[in-house]
Structure formats: structure tokens, C-alpha cells
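Chains adopt folds. We examine one example:
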Amino acid sequence: METDRGYSERYELALRMAAIAHHDQRRKTSDLPYITHPVHVSAILLRHGFPDDLAIAGLLHDVVEDQGIELSEIEARFGFRVAELVAALSERKTDAEGNRRPWEVRKEEMLAHVRQASPEVAAVKAADTLHNARCTAQDVRCQGPNVWRRFNRGPELQLDYYRRIVRAVRERLQNHPIVDELAHAVDDLARATEEACAGSSPASEKKNPTR
């Protein structure tokens, strides 16, 4: 007698593709395998009731940008809609000559894409940013403000970008709960960073000398 599966065969195939694509990657601020990120992004989307295509796009949202998987392969395996979502969420990190494109240019492009994209694209981007903000806040609280040195830009620019993502996805999703959850996570990251920086200041060290 068959029992109901907890997820579709398409979802399982996407999970396998993501695990293989990211097998040699680790998260920027920890030793966790990178696959933990797309899995969490997908789980956030499922928890908010988004359909299978969006959950699968959450699993695969970095495989084109970071690992060179072709969009044609994603379309062949998972359909045009998933490939379209992944394409909309993939940054072009290098130019035609193979040179690294500036962080600011790439982020402005992503913001423009989200503002003009479907609500489904905005939802996946919201889940992506939500998980990143939560993880960074936890790392800042555990490891201190030096965590930010591992990013392409410092906390001021990163937090400004996250806040602009919040505004962009709110334009597309209005008052959807995932937007409020993202906004709270970004506020918490800002608070964690402020507290960590204050705690590592010379004045704080004088008040709390090492024994």
C-alpha cells in the first residue's frame, strides 16, 4: 500500500541537482555546506504556501549564477516556468571578457529585475534574502562584526541593499506575510550589527577588561 510522499518527484530531482551542483561549496560566514541555503529558501517558500515550481526554483536559484548550470538543462528537467524564475534571479557576475562586474552594478540590476518581475520572482528573492539576513545576524552575534569582512561590501551597503530588497518585494507582494518576515529579519540584522560593533569598541573594552 502506497503512502503519500512528503514531496514530489520533481522536487526530489531538483534537490539532487542542487546538492550535486553545490557539493564543493560552503557558506560565506561558516563551515556549513552551501546546500543548506537553497534548502532553507525552498522550505521558507513551502511554509508560506507557495507552489512546487517556486519551491523548486528556491532549490535551484544559485546553480546558474554560481555553478554554471545551463538554463536549458533546468528547462528540460523542470519546465519553462522554473527556468524563467531561476533566470530572473541569476546575477551576471562577469562581463563578455570574463572580468568581474562591480557589486553595485549587479545589485542595481537585481533590484530593477525584482521591481519589474512577477510576484513569484519577488517571493523567491524574499525567501533568499530572508535566509541570508537571518544567518548573517546569527553569525554576527556569535563571531562579532568581523563577519562582515567576508562580504564583498561592508554592513552599511549590504544593509542598504537588503532594505531596498524589502521595498522592492513589497511593491510586488504587498502585505504578504513573507515580506513582513523579511523586514523583521533585516531589522534584526541591523540591530545585531549595531550591538556587535558597540561591544567591540575601545570604550567597551575599557569597561569590560579581559581577565
Observations:
- The chain has one domain: 9-199.
- The first helix runs from residue 9 to 21.
- The chain is about 70% helix and 0% strand.
